[in-house]
Amino acid sequence: MEKRTNTSKWPALLTGAGVVLVVVAVAVFATTWATSGRDSQALPPNSPAPGGTTGASTSPDGTPDPSPTIGPTTSPSPTAPSDQAGPPTNPPTAINPPSPPEQTCATLTGLKFCDDFTGPAGSPPDSSKWRILTGSSWGGQCFRNDRENISLNGQGQLQLTLVDKGTTQCTDGRGYETTVTSGGMDTKGKVYFKYGRFEIRAKLSCAKSVWGAIWMATGSGPEWPKSGEIDFYELFNNKQETIKHTIHAGDPYWNTGATYTFPEPLCRDYHVYGGEWREGYIQFTVDGKPTARFTRDVHGANRPWPFDTYDLRLLIDLQYGSPGWPAAGSWDKSELPSSMLIDYVRVFE
What we know:
- By secondary structure, this protein is mainly beta.
- The chain has one domain (about 70-349): Jelly Rolls (Sandwich).
- The protein has one helix and 21 strands.
- Strands 2, 4, 5, 6, 7, 10, 12, 17, 18, 19 and 21 form an eleven-stranded mixed beta sheet that branches.
- A hairpin with a 2-residue loop joins strand 18 and strand 19 (about 290-295).
């Protein structure tokens, strides 16, 4: 009997192989597409490369958000002129977001220092944490330990207030008589800091002639400027939408700084001012966003960098312009009284 080859199975085999090839091709394509899509989502066109900076941010609807601007500053600080000011030497670097405002000193962890300013209206700040400033110093005002100048408001904030008393109260640090009193405080003799993450939530005074500051200066180390100075925020010169970050050091003396500008006056709402102070660098922030960064080589190897050697005290004060302090801008006493509110101070490890 003639042997016959059964060829009816080849169409089925070819069909099965085709299906396998198609499945494999689809799987490879899907894997490639998914990987490409994942990479694109992880690093969209507007994102920075590691260690870089990004351009204008966008809101959920795709429209550009008003981004703050960063630039050099030449305005004087409370303690010395910024005649060597310049832009940051390194691009801003992302850091931890600010802690939730609704949390309290009792619920937060990793704290080195904290004050929620809770207490009856008209009471002074906690004397175990703060020393109230008195007398004349920088600015055209007299610091007073009076409840109209510095006290809790009974709603969880500390209130610093500029008041025009109408008669001469003292002679300011430049020799001019002044009728204006104000409030300020520091942690001298209470607590000093070396490194940490600082968050001070505040609503600034809207007076055009205001010269407020949240800053750090000599602690247990040598006198200013050898120990260094860190200005988390200064606002003056009638520029309510612009703040200045500065660091000072010596000997020999040097300083550098950067400005940060918002699309609207900062006094309209609360903002969180502060930054990260770590070995070798200081990173300033506003509302958790990096604004300026300075490292120990900001002015070269021959310039002193005391920030890895000495501790500093924290200061919060509300100053005022005068003929002796023209950098604070023109002043109009009809704007007074005017207050700065401090919601909390938090210093983390």
